[in-house]
């Protein structure tokens, strides 16, 4: 039918999509002569073109049917790129992906080692190049084991709170014949623990974990068990947590360790704390707390048994986790904390040492192995309560050689232990034992207290109304740990210790520490200091009642006045520094109005302190509670403070009004110093 080759080629191209293949198949010559078909030498066909005249030295032009087609070449994409690029995407996206494909091919041309690929993927993900790394890992997975690179991708998605995307990568990884390793599951479980969607994280974690146990290529180990427990604990799903805990084995790769028990105890503590803080009824909250403590006691019995058998190591974190569960209970549960630290860390009981008989007191300082029944019976004999000990705390076996080396099985106390003991003493109202435990841990065990330890110790002193102890704590605190709240608590302790004749002297020590360690004194703390001076009058009042002599009564009145005068005199210079700080601010402002607004709250607190000082001065002056020379000075200072308060009140009204903010330093009462910020006139009132 098709006599002419050109006609045959056109017909074949119309029937197939790829015309180049047909042309290559028809490229084999059937005739070697240049004559036309059927011996017609001069016949020209449809595909024939005009040939150039040749000379004797040039080769003759090839026949027309042997030449390549004269149309624009179509870019043929490699099969690898075709699998990664969506041809239905917009043209600009296809162009970007083609460029990205070229970059990936260049990287894979030199990256042959899976270790180098993993390092490159990690660096690229740190820069945020997710598309490039994803395409690179997919192409490298065809002939290389790049499980580490897949782990980096999954970790990146979980770090950016993309749980669904991470699970999809995990499934795609398995489809591409990349077998997940133990690190893959650890990354997934830990990422689920940090997810912002706890319910979804729990469901996905349990599904993957159960698959690992039933028919997974890798069986879960203790690290996977702890990671899944952490997911359930962070989500508050205690029942699922105990369901996962039941999958632990007595021995083997999935046996529980100290971190396992710590996670469970912390989850129970969170459950009891949330029950107390929720809107549940008081009885329901108490029942939930009691159930959590009961479960914690049962877990602790297992911990002690495994600890004695050498199957688990007890550290400070585990002991403090159990102790903080007990502090959520009643007074009896809080008392168990002291027994807990005694028999796990060998810290003596300073609250019962004097009341115990000599043999028992000597035995209490030595580690012993006791069963549950013997522990309960010994607790019953040493206390008046008929109930057994709340928790069968047991000490580890003594394995010390003849050199009497320290027992390495006992956990070493630290800051967490110190904070736990102070909290237990505060809840049991045994503040008198606080300094004994503090000195024992800081001097004997070498614990370096942090800011939280100092604040906890200060609150314990406040609970016991120990003003001298509070002054010692504030004086010993490093400058980096002090704050305004520190001195407020200390002054509140001095106010509460009103029956102590030396409470004001202790308050003066705290005030001197405040002026030394703070850049500017706290106005509220200054008011509390003045209140401690005016409120510590019980011993003066007692002197008046005991004596009928009018002269002695006047002497006691002068003594109280001298105390108030001493407080006011101490406050005068620091108060001037405080008011001067409002004239210059460390914040960058664009107008005097903005600078005034930034210091509104602190300025109001300072003015409230000035009013309290004025009231105290009036009390001294009106009742003649000081010498005439002192009264004269205080009258002058009282006038200065009164004018300052009035001037600031007027200034505040002026600043509230609408003023042009672009005019800098034009407001009333402001002056711009040369090369400095605008300065308020009310800051220059102190002359005495």
TrEMBL record:
Keywords: Repeat. Residues 50-59, 358-386 have a biased composition (Low complexity). Gene3D superfamilies: Tetratricopeptide repeat domain. Residues 387-399 have a biased composition (Pro residues). InterPro entries: PPR/CCM1_RNA-binding (IPR051222), PPR_rpt (IPR002885), TPR-like_helical_dom_sf (IPR011990). Residues 50-73, 358-413, 667-688 are annotated as: Disordered. It comes from the Eukaryota. This is Mitochondrial group I intron splicing factor CCM1.
